[in-house]
Write a structure and sequence with these properties.
With 587 residues, the chain is an alpha+beta fold. Helix content is 27%, strand content 23%. The chain folds into three domains: 195 residues, Phosphoenolpyruvate Carboxykinase, domain 1 (3-Layer(aba) Sandwich); 253 residues, Alpha-Beta Complex (Phosphoenolpyruvate Carboxykinase, domain 3), CATH 3.90.228; 81 residues, Phosphoenolpyruvate Carboxykinase, domain 2, CATH 2.170.8.10. The strands form seven sheets. Strands 13, 14, 15, 16, 17, 18, 25, 26 and 29 form a nine-stranded mixed beta sheet that branches. Strands 1, 6, 7, 8, 9, 10, 11 and 12 form an eight-stranded mixed beta sheet that branches. The protein binds sulfoacetic acid and manganese (II) ion (MN).
Length: 587
């Protein structure tokens, strides 16, 4: 008797008509064979799928160039197909599930003719974790198959684990013609199914990542009482050798991965890394909040990563413990056959850019969204708790954003509800690197706007509900590394110095530490903040902690506009928090 998994694979093969079906076992031998196919046989836009980099300085590392029209997630082509539009909310594109299915079946018909279909059984989370989920993705891309080995716990005993059950998360992926007009990423939350066509890139194609672990999982979390969040997880160990764990959500261009791997500047402190992108958080049997990282690798932005911004990531990229490491859309130093990107070092003499053209310093060598894909097992700062199936207890939740004014370096929310309010109004100013004008504020609640798989008003409500289930809810903080002074200069040095902020957060989390109350929450007092050996003037520190509610007029108007978008689904508790902020302003 065929199992539901075997039947499903048969159905997909019937539809897509691959020449061969390859069930991935996740072994290194297999990965080496797939890479070889990508070097010798398959091409993309005239380039081999993989080219081997310098064997000595970048062993087991490969360059991949994607199609120039396929270099980032495509939110406009991403749909969440709930039975009705209201469930998807104003934060998602919606299509009727029947219509979406019909569209995808049309695109998939015969799309793998002459190709191999890779069947990838994988776990999101440790296989023994009560919070892990068994998944199966098919793909016709060897780049995706190799990437999934790095990013997930692929193969092993997953097929056995699924057995005769039909409860596994399904992903169907084909690169199709890489035609943006025939590109869709469709989510079917009720079926635990993702269908993706026409893109081979990152979050569009590695369906265990944003598609499942955030969009579908956030909806599962709503039904099952847990949280799937766009958060890093890190451990912080102080001089007393006690380790505390925090989870943090920061919008893009705020140094999220750098924070997860930071090198602390205060003696006696070390950090350990558990994840740089996604956290699944459940209330454990003891009423505490526990987090696991469902992923097993980093898909990090290469541009700007350096020994200064993230030395631990640079070391991770050279660790060469787990095969292989991929570089996508970076530049290439042709003398050394090494990857190169802006921010890494001075430009080498001979570079070709991410599209293979000679680099002349006018256009960027690496695409702004160039990436590396590397196993978390290579991580220099990996936490030993990464493999703990129970996850780690979370002492503090941190939200953040890039704000040049108004928001202090750090503040502590007054309660769980007030913390949810601060997450719900979270926003970041755009940087010049993005396609749009610099300095425009974009609200991105909990850094989940593109990833919440259902109506965001209901999501806020769910956060409030989870808070009520906990005995000992973590305190919620907000950080802003980007406040500027009168000359427009950043006042806070950031990077490894951020440990000082973490230290204060942990002191507050255990009911210690000095703080001053303000209308938006508590901020550090200058004498209660570790400034030993820090090159920031006392007056800048005072400015960094300053909250002047009289400056909040525009902000309040903008929050009102933001909340209006979610209409009647906005929880009344958050509207009440908004009202009390207005009262403080009007006082
Ligand atoms: O492409 S991914 O979604 O994996 C990365 C990102 O855009 O954040
Ligand atoms: Mn992300």
């Amino acid at each position: 008797m065929a199992t539901p998994l075997e039947k499903w694979i048969e159905e997909i093969a019937e539809l897509t008509k691959p020449e061969k079906i390859h069930w991935c076992d996740g072994s290194e031998k297999e990965a080496r064979e797939l890479v070889k196919i990508g070097i010798e046989k398959e091409k993309l836009n005239g380039n081999p799928i993989f080219s081997e980099l310098n064997k000595t300085t970048y062993p087991d590392s490969y360059l991949h160039r994607s199609h120039p029209n396929d270099v980032a997630r495509t939110e406009n082509l991403t749909f969440v197909c709930h039975p009705n539009k209201e469930m998807a909310g104003p934060n998602n594109n919606w299509m009727d599930p029947k219509e979406a299915k019909a569209k995808m079946l049309g695109l998939y018909a015969g799309c793998m003719k002459g190709k191999t279909m890779y069947v990838m059984p994988y776990m999101m989370g440790h296989p023994d974790s009560p919070y892990a989920k068994a998944c199966v993705q098919v793909t016709d891309s060897v780049y995706v198959a190799v990437s999934m080995r790095i990013m997930t716990r692929l193969g092993g005993k997953v097929v056995e684990k699924i057995g005769s059950s039909d409860k596994f998360v399904k992903g169907v992926h084909s690169v199709g013609e890489l035609d943006p007009n025939r590109r869709y990423i469709m989510h079917f939350p009720d079926e635990g199914l993702v269908m993706s066509y026409g893109s081979g890139y990152g979050g569009n194609a590695l369906l265990g990542k944003k598609c499942f672990s955030l969009r579908i999982a956030s909806y599962l979390g709503l039904k099952e009482g847990w949280l799937a969040e766009h958060m890093i997880i890190m451990g912080i160990t102080g001089p007393d050798k006690k380790t505390f764990y925090v989870a943090a959500a920061l919008p893009s261009a705020c140094g999220k991965t750098n924070l997860a791997m930071m090198q602390p500047t205060i003696p006696g402190y070390t950090i350990t890394t558990l994840g740089d992108d996604i956290a699944w958080m459940n209330v454990g049997p003891d009423g505490q909040l526990y987090a696991i990282n469902p992923e097993y690798g980093f898909f990090g932005v290469a541009s700007g990563t350096s020994m200064k911004t993230n030395p631990n990531m640079m070391k991770t990229l050279h660790a060469n413990k787990f095969y292989p490491t991929l570089y996508t859309n970076v530049g290439l130093d042709t003398d050394k056959n090494e990857p190169w990107w802006e921010g890494m070092s001075e430009a080498p003499k001979n570079v070709i850019d991410w599209q293979g053209k000679k680099y002349d310093g006018k256009e960027k060598a690496a695409h702004a969204n160039s990436r590396f894909t590397v196993s978390i097992r290579n991580c220099e700062t990996l936490s030993p708790e990464e493999e703990n199936p129970k996850g780690v207890p979370i002492s503090a939740i941190i939200f953040g954003g890039r704000r040049s004014s108004l928001l202090p370096l750090v503040y502590e929310s007054k309660s769980w509800q007030h913390g949810v309010f601060s997450g719900s109004i979270m926003g970041s100013e755009t940087t010049a690197a993005a396609a749009h004008a610099a300095g425009v504020l974009r609200r991105d609640p909990m850094a989940m706007l593109p990833f919440c798989g259902y109506n965001m008003g209901d999501y806020f409500f769910h956060w409030l509900e989870v808070g009520k289930k906990m005995k000992n809810a973590p305190k919620i903080f907000f950080v802003n590394w980007f406040r500027t002074n009168e000359e427009g200069k950043f006042m806070w040095p950031g990077f490894g110095e951020n440990i000082r902020v973490m230290k204060w957060i942990l002191e507050r989390a255990i009911g210690k530490g000095k703080a001053k109350e303000t209308p938006i929450g508590s901020v550090p007092t200058v004498d209660g903040f570790d400034m030993t050996g820090l090159d920031v003037s006392k007056s800048d520190m005072e400015k960094l902690f300053r909250v002047n509610i009289k400056e909040w007029g525009e902000e309040i108007k903008s929050i009102e506009e933001h909340y209006k978008k979610f209409g009647a689904t906005m929880p009344k508790e958050l509207l009440a928090e908004y009202e009390s902020l207005v009262k403080e302003y009007e006082k």
